[in-house]
Amino acid sequence: MTKANIYQTKIQQTKPVVYKENKNPRKPGLLKGKIWISDDFNDEDEEINKLFYGE
After folding, report:
1. How far is residue 25's CA from residue 21's CA, in Å, rounded to a whole number?
2. Could you tell me which of 37, 53, 33 has the C-alpha nearest to residue 45?
């Protein structure tokens, strides 16, 4: 016969916080010229597709 030990923990799993709406709206274009994404970013790679989908 096996025994299962069940322990109660007093560790708080979540912490309730008050939601505060941001009073300063985001400014579009703030990072313009600071981030670069290559032209082939959305192109699929055949080698990776073979790993996912097989041949």
Report:
1. 10
2. 53
Amino acid at 41: F
**For residue 34, which amino acid is it?**
K
Res 16 pLDDT > 90:
no
**Cα torsion angle, 46, 49, 50, 54, sign:** negative
Residues in the chain: 55
In tens, the pLDDT along 2-15 reads 666 666 666 667 78
